[in-house]
Amino acid sequence: MSDIQLSNSGQTAADEPDGGRTPVRFRNPGLPAHRHRNADVDPRAAKRAEHQVLAMLGLSALGTIFFIVAYFAVPLDGTFGTLQLSNITLGLGLGTGIFFIGTAAVHLAKTLMPDTEMFDERHPQRGTQEERDDAAAIMVQGGQESGLGRRPFVLGGLVGAAALAPLPAVVLLRDLGPLPGDALAETLWDEGVRLALDPSAEPILAADVTVGSAFHVIPENLYESEHFLDEKAKAAVLIMRVDPGVVQYDAEREGWDVDGIYAYSKICTHVGCPVALYEQQTHHLLCPCHQSTFDLTQHCKVIFGPAKRALPQLPITVDDEGYLVARSDFLEPPGPSYWERG
Amino acid sequence: MSTPAGSTAAYTSTSRTARLSAGAADYFDERFGAARLVKGFARKVFPDHWSFMLGEIALYSFVILLISGTFLTLFYVPSMTLVTYEGSYAPMYGVTMSDAYASSLNLSFDIRGGLLMRQVHHWSALIFVAAIVVHMLRVFFTGAFRKPREFNWVLGVVLAVLALAEGFTGYSLPDDLLSGNGLRIIEGVILAIPVVGTYIVFFLFGGEFPGETIIPRLYILHVFVLPGIILATIVMHLALVVAHKHTQYPGPGRTNDNVVGFPLLPVYAAKAGGFFFIVFGVIILISGLVSINAIWNYGPYDPSPVSAGTQPDWYIGFVDGLLRLMPGQPEFTLAGFTLSLNVFLPSLVVPGLMVVALLAYPFFEQWVTGDNREHHLLDRPRNAPVRTGIGVMAITSYCVMWAAAGNDLMAVAFRMSINDLTWLLRVLFFVLPPVAFVVTKRICMSLQRKDRELALHGHETGRVVRTADGEYFEVHEPLTETDRWLLVQHETYRPLAIPPKAHQDGSKPSAVHRFRANLSNFFFEDRVEPVTPRELAAAQHHGGLEALEQPTGSEAERRELTSGP
After folding, report:
1. Fewest 10 Å CB contacts: which of A187, A230, B464, B484?
2. Do A8 and B252 touch (CB under 8 A)?
3. Rounded to 5 degrees, what are φ and ψ at B339?
């Protein structure tokens, strides 16, 4: 691209109206006169700088010794306010020991080492024409001597084999994990599984859930599962009891609650944080990670924030002994959206 | 090695140290070609400027990360096997937790200096990424990415991305509640990738979230794979710095063909080496005095609880903020498949585009200017108003995203509705960046005009003088040649003429050519050109010159008056 136009580039003085009497461009005036530092001209200043450097090195040594003493002398359970005393003393000692070596070196360089500006020439990255011609000739010669140009099948075979060779590395990754299958859509909840308190797994009597209260809930059989954290990550539930009539009537969800006790998945439909905050007065559920807000009165529909889908409801009932139990699994996969979710 | 007879005096006058170092020099030269290396590199000149130390801070933080991280690996156990905690932190005694979390607690409470090293590691990680970002801003705003350094900029962007990955993998290792929730968000983000998301999650986590393999897998990435790649990239980055020689700011005596500064040995060895100790010392002092990531407060990871006001480490904040800003509407179900754009766009597409934009900028700007010369003199940001405007625009939108990651804390601090605040930030996300662009560009041009004014007319002295004819003027003190140089040394590009849609002969200029001409006008149509010697001469002739000469006259007059009878 040679269409570049510049001002102040000083290309053609003769084009200028005054016929080139005035230069088109200012000339670089060159480096200003060197200014000497105190330590360059005053031996006492130099001596002072030397002493300062020595003092810093002394402080550094003191810091290091302090660190070693503190390591053995300060017990780990000592505190200073809310901070660990050992951490403070070790940090101060080690930090001082290292910091002052740095300041000493820099001070030495800035006060006592020569500060006369030096010049290096720059050379363009581009080689000379001769170098470029030689390089091109070498490449051509190398290509010819390899003989690949005359033997296209060898070249093709080489490229093909080399392209195939990394495939095993990809295949080897297959056993990193199982295929998803329906795993994300299935939880421990099933007909008759008792709702239990998180984390004690004690079953919950419907009568104990008073109006206005909210419980963090897990399936009673959670800890029987080998990978109970995986199961908990899907099955965590929040139950809340509200006055009758607070939640809009929905014929499809008839009989999913027990006298105003509603159970909803606690896993946010956005990216899976626990929807842990229940505002008792407004009946809103808030996810503290990204503030998706769900309205219990509208069956946990999203009323604000980045989630799109309502929290899935867990249909519940009571068993013979009065404990809350699930009527089935969730009717849709809980948690964040994924491609195969449907 | 034989001593010729009669030179005993000379032999004894040579000190023992000198003989030893001569011997060592000989030894190394014959084995490593040390003489050639020393001759080539030891007196290499580096230019001096505080802003050149930003990249150094990044480099040194990385070294500190390697040192402190190695200590941590001696005690940390990268395993999700559940154990019962029996260490000395009483509130957690008897709690079931992963080995990873238990060993992190041990590092904090049962290993002397363990907490210090954990905090050094965390603080230097934050400073590492921060130094990279600020270094990139310096390189961007001064145009240091221009030819021949485009690919060093690319390597720098790669390093920034690797640093984020390294930071995030490390953040997750303690397996505490906070980092576990961070991983859960990552799971949700990956799930949102169309078609393959679910598979990636199952392969990454070895099954369902959280599984039992993610911590050991992140561990090997964090302590081996990523640091190895980062180290190799740093080596290339620095090799290119040596090959290109460092850029320098414009100034008297500095040209595009020289480097003005101080030699590596001894000045830069002492300054840069000393600076490493300063950075290390400051980070240790911070870590001794300021607590960070108090994992013992959060408890072990459990998918059900979460603490309010959760925040990621600062460098992931912009992604988290975007996730918070994005409304939920754009999630669709198409032909039985779910496309979760409300997650996919803010968490992966936008950050991906940001990286692409960063990678592409040097090539884009070069295409617009058509300038394929080498540039070793840095631009003053004001002298590239559109570039500076673009940079500030990018910073502004980044800051809005970043602020959004703290919307809950801000809402509490300012007693605002979080909904209103989120809406405000959504609006600002679109409104602020263009405003920032225009304001920055205008400020740059005003500064350029100020430079012109100063170069043409010099400093105001505050002395107002009346001539014999009753004319008033203020005396201006012209700049010296040396002081003026910085204000007049730069070049400005002139925009390309925009070709007509169709030429008279019916042929049409290519759309690409028209587009480039339009961009060229966007960049360079508004410009303040530097003062030329002719302009200066004219200014001095038309008033400036009188101003320069008159004072002596009036001075003489005044002296006459005061010394009169």
Report:
1. B464
2. no
3. -110, 110
Q: B291 at the A interface (CB within 8 A)?
A: yes
CA atoms of B138 and B131, how far apart (whole Å):
10
Residue with tokens 């000692």: A93
Q: Tell me the residues of chain B between 65 and 104 that have a Cβ less than 8 Å away from chain A.
A: 88
Q: How many CB atoms lie within 10 A of CB B504?
A: 6
Best mutation target, A31, A285, A289, to test chain B (most B CBs within 10 A): A289
Interchain contact, B270 vs A106, CB within 8 Å: yes
CA distances from residue B280 to A100, A236, A336, B538, B540 in whole angstroms, order as listed: 10, 45, 42, 56, 54
Percentage of residues in chain B having pLDDT higher than 70: 93
Average pLDDT, rounded, for chain B = 91
Cross-chain Cβ contact B304/A232 below 8 Å? yes
Q: Which residues on adjacent β-strands are paired with residue B150?
A: none
Show which of residues 139-168 on chain A sit within 8 Å of chain B, judged by CB atoms.
none
**Torsion sign (Cα): B363, B367, B368, B372:** positive
**Where does the pLDDT of residue B88 fall: very low under 50, low under 70, confident under 90, or very high at 90 and above?**
very high
Closest residue in chain B to residue A107, using alpha carbons only? B271
- Give the orientation angle of helix B269-289 with respect to helix A85-111, to 10 degrees: 160
> What's the confidence (pLDDT) of residue B384?
97
Residues paired with residue A216 on neighbouring β-strands, in sequence order: A238
Between A21 and B258, residue with greater pLDDT: B258
Q: What are phi and psi of A300, to 5 degrees?
A: 60, 35
Whether B274 and A104 lie within 8 Å, measured CB to CB: yes
Residue type, B140: F
* A122–B494 C-beta distance less than 8 A: no
* CA B37 to the chain's CA centroid: 31
- Is residue B375 within a helix (H) or strand (E), and if so which, with residue range? none
The closest alpha carbon to B355, from B166, B164, B547, belongs to: B164
Separation CA B200–CA A6 (nearest Å): 52
In this complex, the residue of A88, A173, A340 whose CB is nearest that of residue B288 is A88
Lowest mean pLDDT among B273-277, B283-287, B492-496: B492-496
Query: Cβ of B253 and A28 within 8 Å?
Result: yes
Of residues A28, A91, A121, nearest to B284 (C-beta): A91
Rounded to the nearest 10°, the torsion over CA B229, B230, B236, B240 is: 160
Weakly modelled stretches of chain A, pLDDT under 70:
1-2, 8-21
CA distance B206 to A284: 35
- The CA distance from B273 to the nearest CA of chain A, in Å, is 7
What distance in Å separates residue B560's CA from the closest CA in chain A? 38
Angle between helices B385-404 and B418-457 (to 10 degrees): 160
- pTM of the entire structure? 0.92
- Residue tagged 């393999």 (tokens): B213
